[in-house]
Fold each of these.
Amino acid sequence: MHFADFVQIRLSATSLLLFTILGQTVIMGFAWGFTGAILYTGVLTLPDNVVHLIVEHPTVLTLIVTLIATALSITTSMFFTFALKEALRHHLSGPSITLFKLRTAIALSRPTWVLRWRFLKLSLLTLVIYAMVTFLSTSWSTLLLPTLVEWPVGTFGTELDLGSAAFVNQLSTDLTTPNATSVQAPAFEVLNVLTLLSGTAAVDIQEGVDTSSMFSFNGVSYNQSTGGVLPAIQEYSGSSVPPGSDVGLAFTGGQVPVNTSFDWGHLGRDSGTQGISKNYSITQQGLTANVTCRPINRSQNTFTFIPTAVPGPTGLNITFLTWEVVANCSGNLNSITSFTVGNANGQANNATDGFLPTVVCPDPNSTAFNPYKFNIFMSGLYKYSFLPTIVCEVTPYLTTISVTYNGGIISVDRIGTSSGSTTSSSNFPLSQYIATVMNYQASSNQAVTKNTIGDFLTAYGTSNVSVMYGELEDYWRGIAEFSSIQLRSGYSTSGVPSIMARSTSGTMYITTYGWRSQAHTYIFLLVVLTVIWGAIILAAGYSFMQEKITASDDDPSFDFSDPVDLIIAASGGRLESQLCDDDENQEDHREDIIVRFEDVTDEMGKRISKRL
């Protein structure tokens, strides 16, 4: 159907061509502008309310985009067909052409395709035009259909720097005050069980099998171990209860403020976008420890435990044993006192009773304490006799790690080597505090007939000594990391002064619906759309030039692609005689017959039709 008839507007061909150019230019501008916005922003997202509708009604999205793509495709196809048909109408009104070229012109104006090996170039031209026009709907659907995208948004903020001189000085002051022990004791008692759990959760190989545990502190869930990091994201910050006066060394739980902001860049209008889900990857300061457990070297160290028996109440047939446990590490001493029970003869039941003396050496409160490393002496007795006397060397250090926040869980990448000389003589208070927590936990694990860590080792296998060593190494490392968390939390509750702060950075990834920059795909789509737009402009320009040359002598009402118009034109010409005279054995050469459109005029010289 003729474009002018379709729109039902009686306009000249020139006006319709101008409208075609304008309309297709607007469509092309939209395509370029939309694609440019995607390429410029990297990710173009939909508002949250629209995303929620898409999640609830996913098929509606496909329907709407398909309708829009179809409308744009049909409009572009109409513009292209009309411009090309007008150009071909002017061209066919000129010199003679072969029947195959006429067929090619008809195919181009449909558009459809013809295939003749004798006319390969013209056949390929029809195939290319047909493919591009047919590809229009797919192009628009691909360009307009939003998909699930992961939108990266930069984050920046600050956190407490455990290695800063200001913090180390403050911690040193707090640890050396006369009432330091009375301040720490309630916190140690409250966190006793959590400290134990932090160690056992950090064990990733139990009885030779990889395991995965969760650890929770202050409303924050960690995957296995804390890594020594505080949450840097508000929704992962845990408790919202004010800590009151329990800050610093006395901290046992409560709200810890987060100082993290987001860099929305030139998409500031999208700040606060929630999308479908979010996860974060933040670079933060962590604290961990290298722990190495091995049998005691008795040429340098000794570990003794001497019991003193005290008879129990008459008739109970038990004896109370007071153990003086002494560790000597290269001439430096530390000791603890433990209590167990035995039978009337002071002997323990090897099947049910266990004693696992554990001591940190040197004494964390002595001047001989080494901030670079310290030792933990352990030895199993009675039912824990499977564990020989060993020494675990602990080297705490600060490091920079990548922390992942996803699904309400904080995961810390396995920490490798130290990021620098962060644990030095100036960090004496930090190492001292970690050693104090370990020493307290070592003594609190022992009950009168059993030891918590001894039972843990018993439950997860005692046949492989190297596996036990690995479990103990993870256990003490987990406690070192948790002790730093408790310290960070206590000194961050009231805000972190700038002289104690360090910067954090990372990325928030928002999963939502939108468009992601895919340069190669979009460039290919734009090439198709631009070629069609260029063809429309060229065809319309050719028509304008021919209009000036022929002074509008062509008949715009004649449509050479309309079968009825062609039949009428052919019946008025001499094509039938040429077809009858042609050799039937040369049917393929009929397409070589040369034809020409001529005007048919009335007696007054007025053009009334065309003939072929």
Amino acid sequence: MRACIQQRFHQLPHTRFSFLHPPRIHAYTVANVENPSAPSREDYAYANVFLWNTMIRKQAENGDITRDPPLLYYIQGLRTGLRPNGQTFMYLLKALVCGKNVNEGEEVHASVVRTGFASSEFVSGALLGFYVANGFIGQARQVFDEMPQPGLVLWTLMIRAYVCLSLPGEALELFRTMRRVGVMPDMVAVATVVSASGLLGDLGVAKTIHCFIEKSGVEVDAFVSSTLINTYGECGSLTDAYRFFQETAMKNTVVWNTMIHQSLEHNNLELGKQLFDSMPERDVASWNSMIRGFANVGQYEEALALFHDMEISVFRPNTLTLLSTLSACASHGALEAGAWIHSYVNDNDLNRDGSLDSSLIDMYSKCGDIAKAIQIFEESPRRDLFTWTSIICGLAMHGHGKKALCYFSEMNESQVSPDEVTMVGVLSACAHAGLIEQGRRYFQSMEKVFGLVPKIEHYGCMVDLLGRMGCLKEAYDLIMGMPMEANEIIWGSFLSACRVYNNVELGEVAARRLLELDPHDPWGRVMLSNIYAEEAKYDRSMGLRKEIKEKGLKKSPGCSSIEVNGSVHGFLVEDDSHPCYNEINSMLEKIEKLMN
């Protein structure tokens, strides 16, 4: 590594690393000398550690370490007789973190040891942070263990390193060691340990840490309070989270938002709404949490109503607000509301960078306006993975399989690699267009070309494709060869194909598997009954119908919806709960008379 650095050093103009005093720089500028000869040792008389550190720090701030590697500046300074101080190593390690230069970082580590700065807590902290940023927790722990008497900062950094790498057990064990040697934690250390107990998901450990905080007298600020609430929620106890929220005196907006978030995470919308209405001060995050919470549980009308309330409040929706609201429109099929939000975005110039394009494409696709989705994609300045995936999946959803595959080819030509969701769209497009050979090829290319391991959704798409094309034996073999157990969706798709092609033998297998997965769902029995009826096996068909009746099994009622004046109205079979039920029936009777 050092040889490579030195080779690179000799390839670059020597003046780039010269520490020249202002008059000499001015002289070079006036003379317009592009390639001055290598400066003599006298040229370095004006150099000092401050300038040296400043140049290294600038590399860290600029992030351009490939053109001007910071280690070259360091080596050049050493050659001029400069001696590094703690700041030199801190700036150097910060610069190397930006470029993930592990080998060079180890070179610096060796230099730290040689120059006697290994005992500096700040330098050791920078080394520890460097190794953690690159995922080398073992080397980070070695740096920590080599400190004769690590202070609170270093203890906290090491505990936080374990938390950041999702190693809560190690973080908590280190905290116990810290207490045994008599180091008292502060608020930052306490919050870090609380986070570790949340990652562990052990409610007992969380309560033990909470008890320690109360007995130790450590000041509980808003950050610690919100972390405790979050930890209790992650451990599955909304009750303990709410109890602490009520008891704590530190209730700023962040703490309120954390409690609302945990309420919604536990699907307690009533508590979340109660807290939201009771907040002394709201911010954009408060509104976003509520909108996202309602959207996540399918209460899309409430989510859209909250968006309109926010729009007329003192707070302006941001990108996160619009993402949640567009998602609600897409799931609810609220095209009119989605189009209004699109206009709001354009009127307020909230999509200048195209970050909302993928959500807009998804919303228009799911609401039925695929032409508008295509228009947004074609006009989008942002052709990233998400926009490509949104248009491919949207086209597949609308049955435009060949067009979806054309876009996928363009995506590959643009050097944008697909992810698992993209491939679901591609395979779905093949299924809708009946492109069986392309489907097989794309499915096989997932691992070979794109390095993606097929998941159950991809197998489901292939079973759907093979079933549509009548390749029932191949579909069955694929199901039986899956690395995971097939779910009811895959067996249901396969049973539907058996129904279309009247394959009694495989239909019986699929129906039996469906009954094992959900004995109370009558759909499998109904489909198998229809297969028997098509094959004139009426005794078996009637036997299944009788079994459904005797067991009182009922299919989930069909549902349709329509959007009127921005509100989506849903209707179930034999459902008379709609407030305008009588008026709707009256109008239907009038239409029926006119048609007759």
Amino acid sequence: MEEGLVLVPLIGAAAYKSFRPALYSWPSLPDGTKIEQSSKIPSRYGASELLLGLNIDTKDVDLEEAKKNAVIGRTQQQFLARIGAIEIEDGSKSDGESSSGQRLTTLLPWVDAVARLVLILGLEDESAIARAAESISDASISEHMRVSFKEAGAIKHLVQLINHPSEAVRLAVVRALDRLSISNHVCQTIEAEGVLNPLVNLLKQSNSETSHSLTSMIIDILARILDPSREMASSELTSRQTNAEGILVDSTFLSCLVDILKASNPNLQTKAASILDFIFTNEPCIEKLISSDIQSGLEAVFQQKSLIETEYDTEVNILELEEAGAAVSASSRLLTKLLDHQQFRQTVNSYNFTQLLRAILSSRIPLQFKNWVAACLVKLGSLSNRHLDIEDPINMEVTLYETIPRLIQQIKGSLSPQVQEAAVVELQRIISQGVVDSTRAVASEGGIFVLVEVLGNGSSKAVEASLGVLYNLSMDEENHAAIIAAGAVPVLRKLVNSQKPEWMLALRLLRNLPT
């Protein structure tokens, strides 16, 4: 799309013969919004019956620019279709294909193009509908274009076409809805048009009928609509709970989602786990999930190949770790919620999940994906009647592989002095408890350089806590070189000379270093 132009398929003048405009109806906007009739008193000579728009009070009609463009585009394109001038009849191009069999297209200004594509969606020609849906997908590259298609009434047509008997039409329509649903605003409209039922039914078809690409796009759309982290108003929540009681808790649909957890790529696994999380949060269908073998699905996510391999040097492997980490995080969150139910706890293999999650916790997946892994491990430990003190193996691993790296990240990246101070104090508390390998974990995560920076610009309490951590680190001679390289010596001497309350701690640390 260049300079406001959109590629539109030429489908042949004959295809437009099925166009049936509403010749007698009260005016409405292209998206279906009815314009309120300000006066119901008929005119003396019946003009109000002939010209329905006469009873509209323009002072009360304040249309947004997008709605105005949609009205203009629809009016122009429907007029051309009604007089038979929307495409010129040409024997060599009557079916929208050239003599060589290539599909013909044209460029139209975006206002006309959007209206033309929506008009084609309402025709009977299957090929024309599929090509129009494909063009909508290709043109939906910005928020402006997605909203324009919504205002032009494309959403209602596309949702209705999901059940079309032609596979080509279904594939093109779902692809268009996938691209349009990227916009949160448009996504809400798609949901309001009742897309859940036809999408779920389409996904429930056998794998031989539903292609992998179609499955991926359906899951993409459902994940955007059924996002458990999305804030909802109470009315919207009530509506979604009603939906969950019927469509979403169908056993076949749940089995489809579990199958995706077992056999799909990490990206789809993340979205499937997120959808299951939403469904389970709104309607605890624990019996159906157990019968769908949710346990095997979660185990498959936690046993991904990229989590087991030890070499992660290439950019491709880094990307794989990101995707695997997202899938693990979403699945750990779901497992944590499932463990709240006694019926699930009686069937789950807690030991197996504990071992899998412990291995993941020490893996190289990004830190932001380890928080739910750690939370799930703690939950599993508490359910096994173990006393999770600081010396418990699970608690120690959570501390080493999630808590300490997270605290160092907060100290390094936080713009809030209060958050930084709290993180340093918590880190000092952990180190002072003598957790095995805790000082090594701080050093390996780059904590020495971060803590030395705190000495120069942190609050009094943060400096004191940082000195305590560095002192414990200095007890291991292997850390001396790193502490000195971080520039600690001049900063410590400055603190000693300043005679601030922390000068004695600074002096003790300075004496421990080979200076």
